[in-house]
Write a structure and sequence with these properties.
mainly alpha; two-stranded antiparallel sheet; 2 domains; Arc Repressor Mutant, subunit A
Length: 129
């Protein structure tokens, strides 16, 4: 389910957060689907359980997961996510990344291709084409 790059400079918990977000956004993990327990996932990935717990907590703070005491962690439905602020923050991040990409030589056509590919991966998610 998850592949971690132990040589990456990015902390393991951030890699987990990014991977789980990707699985949710691409609808591989469905709303209300239960994630593996902290203990199970930590043994599968051979990482400290505190690392898994930190990633789950971060995802819960961002609105991607919810937890039920004694039951575990579950994927939140998109309607439960606080989208307004998240979208504002995401737009700022995208603008920074686009500016850097343009500086490095990415063209407008390249951006259209990237947008189209991302849209194809997330079919079913609302978009303003």
């Amino acid at each position: 389910m998850f592949q971690l790059d132990v040589r990456s400079r990015k902390p393991i918990y951030e890699q987990l957060v990014d991977k789980i977000k990707e699985l949710i956004i691409n609808r591989i993990l469905k709303p209300d689907e239960q994630l593996p327990s902290v203990r199970v996932l930590s043994s599968q990935l051979t990482v400290n359980p505190n690392t898994i717990q930190r990633a789950y907590r971060e995802l819960e703070n961002q609105g991607y997961l919810y937890s039920i005491k004694g039951k575990g962690n579950f994927v939140a439905s998109i309607e439960e996510m606080p989208n307004d602020q998240k979208l504002r923050d995401l737009k700022k991040d995208i603008q920074k990344l686009i500016a850097e990409a343009i500086y490095l030589g990415l063209t407008k056509e390249d951006l259209y291709v990237l947008f189209h590919e991302a849209h194809q991966q997330t079919k079913g998610v609302k978009s303003d084409d």
